[in-house]
């Protein structure tokens, strides 16, 4: 049942991790950050990440119900650049899903599939009460 | 966190808080908009009438019911910080989720406590919060984030008119699906509730509602602020522009709503 600090420490222990932040994507507020200095600055990066997250999370294209079923939720977004992967993973339930974990991963040394699974687990643990974790 | 950005927008309040932080002061900074508690020069707690309290955030975040929160609060004699800790111990609330709520509550209240136009600040040494948020945040980080939030609001829709007026939804067109988060807000926007009341009802940070109401106004889903919403213009009352009242000097009466928007925009630029 890790807190914010521990979640970032764990995220930074992912192989190839260069930076990690926890961001409130309604307003681009950086709750905490760790790792290297972000090339565009941590606040500017968070502001852009928040815009992207909002666009995706509130988009009918991704979230609308299929064949009359329940509406679905976006779990993460992956941005690939020449030198890096950016994994943007929504924390379920915390503040109505309004918080995301952003991992900046080196493209050469990072393993995208492993990092994505690890980040997903961290996001779930962050919002999971102790009893619920124990009962699993 | 990055080093604090320049804080030109909050000169007097900022300098007072920074001076107190430098001195390592302990006590409470009081302004009309709210209170900021310091211990050793760091911000440990913030309170504001306009902000959403921790308990509402914890319930609004999803997992807990109102009754569970009320029960925990009763067991802790009304201390919301201890009630939240108790729920974590009982395994009904995640430590991480609570930590997110506590940070959110502190910065939400600080934003209103340090808002422009809140009058002079007063510092009382040695006053400790009752049932605080159990955080310790550098004062310059609080100031930088507050300034960033003011800039964000101004960039979306300048002026503070929208912050306190009741929010009235418009009927969306059939071609505009509204995301569920915003739908919940729109459902309560009955023209009576103010953004702060909406935030409490939904258990969301008050600052989030200020941001989202602006976004909804831009999208044409709520009435924009200002006298336009309350005083029908000439066109809406069915009179032709030519029939508008004219002063004895022959000039047409000015469009007050437009002038106020221009004033708000200019003020935001200064």
Automatic annotation (TrEMBL), chain A:
Task: Please indicate which superkingdom the organism of origin belongs to.
Answer: Bacteria
According to UniProt, the name of this protein is: Roadblock/LAMTOR2 domain-containing protein
Q: Which organism is it from?
A: Streptomyces polyasparticus
Automatic annotation (TrEMBL), chain B:
Query: Which domain of life does the UniProt lineage start with?
Result: Bacteria
Region Disordered, as annotated, extends over 223-251
Its name, as the record gives it, is Transcriptional regulator
